[in-house]
## 1
Amino acid sequence: GQQLNQSPQSMFIQEGEDVSMNCTSSSIFNTWLWYKQEPGEGPVLLIALYKAGELTSNGRLTAQFGITRKDSFLNISASIPSDVGIYFCGAGGTSYGKLTFGQGTILTVHP
Amino acid sequence: DTAVSQTPKYLVTQMGNDKSIKCEQNLGHDTMYWYKQDSKKFLKIMFSYNNKELIINETVPNRFSPKSPDKAHLNLHINSLELGDSAVYFCASSPRGQGGGNTIYFGEGSWLTVV
């Protein structure tokens, strides 16, 4: 089936550093989304991307929908301790709501 | 608060039991889902309902039966629970509109442990 390859699997960074993670696929998708999940909680939507090439920001977060429609990246600038969590990329096609997810990137931020 | 809310949050039960997880959304969305997250944090869709009608059923054992009494509610009933059913189950919903059907909002999860 369709799979998303998300990297890196984990990151250990110092507070204030910038972070970059990405997702790639062998399939084309119509929607790319980025979520953050904290322990004991559900994934929270950070950014949704609907058009190839689209670049969208949400505060210190910036994400882009790749031109080929097969990839997306998420950048976090000037990380802070509360950025800690697991970040998931999700991608959707024409079967609405049937998202395929990446394996997640575990982010640890040292104060 | 506008949200996707599900109960119970934690459920520990014995093998062979039958249990239900309830879900409600007050976001006015037409489509609701159940996703399963395994021990490796991998998220996978189980079911989706659009306005009370089943539209996606992802080869889930028929011990799992979703029920949607109205478009704001989607409950999950599990019969004859097995050890392998231990996971986190997330209810979710999505609105209509461009890409909207793919813009999924998750509940806080129900942690099911079968012993």
## 2
Amino acid sequence: ETGVTQSPTHLIKTRGQQVTLRCSSQSGHNTVSWYQQALGQGPQFIFQYYREEENGRGNFPPRFSGLQFPNYSSELNVNALELDDSALYLCASSWGRDGSTDTQYFGPGTRLTVL
Amino acid sequence: KQEVTQIPAALSVPEGENLVLNCSFTDSAIYNLQWFRQDPGKGLTSLLLIQSSQREQTSGRLNASLDKSSGRSTLYIAASQPGDSATYLCAVRTSGSRLTFGEGTQLTVNP
């Protein structure tokens, strides 16, 4: 059983650019969630995908968008990067739509720096 | 809006000491509560998950309790070791799909 993987590990971009982050879910999981963790803060929920459809969104602007593919891997896209987008981006996978009983398994994260 | 608070923000203890980390949340209508460990610059490792109908969970030297009515959880670490040094995060799942996290307690266990 493979765990949650994310790529790239680190990324440096400049203001105004666009970025795509990738996540491969743990084997057997059909739900993926994305979180943003600024330095010294707890993770903040961005959105979740269940079977290729968005299933909940946090308080993030539309320039944060996502996709989930038939193999349940996922992408997080951020357009028009701002300095405040610098953070650790975490992907978590789980099984099931409402997650009332399941554990979310987190990947190692992608560290994004916006200059 | 659910808010999660963790106290203390940082804790430094000598090796071998027993310790308690605290977590409080404002909305008691939760599905479950989860404790995570995070090493510097790394992802999150799930330690314990407590369903809303449960009072506590144990794993090795870790014990987590949940008092849903008062909006509180504690993580008890017995006989702390230097390898326990990390940031500990508490997160609650309410209706829908999201986890709401506290800001964490940074634990340092000194040899």
